């Protein structure tokens, strides 16, 4: 009789499956929440980084009185590159940067780069192009400041705080991460941009 009673213990086997379903549901909700949070974090980072580039463009163009003094903007005849490149005092491209300083083509490339990267980041479109252009710009600026140097060409201390990692490197990594993460979809036009026929045919435009 006791042996036959064992065959009626089916209800007891439901509890593990119920717990598994609950765990699966909770895990799914946690994953969804983490995914959404990550998307918002990347979107916020994208907008802030975009504002950095756009503000630099606006300040250098109109001389808003921050990094560029009033009346010294690009529209006032000032050069966005002359001061920075002319002041390069270390590194293997010092003389090259001095030759480029204030050149019209250098001013236009630099300013269009700031504007294009800033607009791409704020709108959430063409993040791959922005990452390539921004990384190239940051690399050149890193070389111009040349963090590995302990001393400038005149022998004075460079005041470099790190021989490799500086904010130019950080910006480049951020740009690449935003492009890889597809950060233009949240709070941006990335999804609509990706659906355009010419973008669908040329994925490097994403």
Description of the structure:
This protein is 63% helix and 0% strand. With 206 residues, the chain is mainly α. The longest helix is centred in the N-terminal third of the chain and has 49 residues, at 14-62. The chain is globular.
What keyword list fits this structure?
single chain; 206 residues; mainly alpha; 9 helices
User: End-to-end span in angstroms?
Assistant: 72 Å
- Strand percentage: under 5%
User: Structural class of the secondary structure composition?
Assistant: mainly alpha
Rg for CA atoms: 27 Å
Total count of strands: 0
Shape: globular
Query: What sequence of helices (H) and strands (E) makes up the elements?
Result: HHHHHHHHH
The description of the largest β-sheet is:
none
Helix content: 55-70%
Query: Low-confidence segments, ≥5 residues, pLDDT <50?
Result: 5-13
Distinct helical segment count:
9
Average pLDDT confidence is: 91
SSE inventory with pairings:
Elements: H1 2-5, H2 14-62, H3 82-86, H4 94-100, H5 104-123, H6 127-145, H7 167-181, H8 190-195, H9 197-201
Helix pairs in contact: 2-5, 2-7, 5-6, 6-7
Task: Describe, in short, the structure shown.
By secondary structure, this protein is mostly helical.
């Amino acid at each position: 009789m006791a042996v036959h009673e064992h065959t009626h213990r089916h209800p007891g086997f439901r509890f593990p499956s119920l717990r598994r379903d609950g765990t699966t549901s909770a895990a799914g909700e946690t994953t969804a929440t983490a995914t959404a949070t990550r998307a918002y974090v990347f979107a916020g980072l994208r907008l802030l980084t975009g504002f950095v580039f756009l503000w630099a463009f606006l300040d250098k163009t109109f001389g808003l009185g921050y990094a560029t003094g009033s009346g010294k903007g690009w529209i006032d005849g000032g050069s966005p590159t002359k001061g920075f490149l002319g002041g390069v005092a270390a590194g293997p491209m010092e003389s090259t940067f001095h030759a480029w300083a204030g050149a019209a083509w250098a001013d236009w490339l630099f300013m269009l780069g700031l504007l294009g990267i800033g607009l791409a980041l704020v709108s959430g479109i063409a993040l791959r192009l922005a990452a390539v252009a921004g990384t190239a710009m940051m690399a050149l600026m890193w070389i111009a400041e040349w963090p590995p140097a302990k001393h400038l060409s005149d022998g004075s201390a460079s005041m470099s705080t790190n021989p490799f990692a500086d904010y130019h490197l950080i910006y480049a990594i951020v740009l690449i991460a935003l492009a890889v993460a597809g950060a233009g979809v949240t709070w941006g036009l990335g999804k609509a941009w990706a659906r355009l026929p010419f973008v669908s045919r040329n994925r490097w435009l994403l």
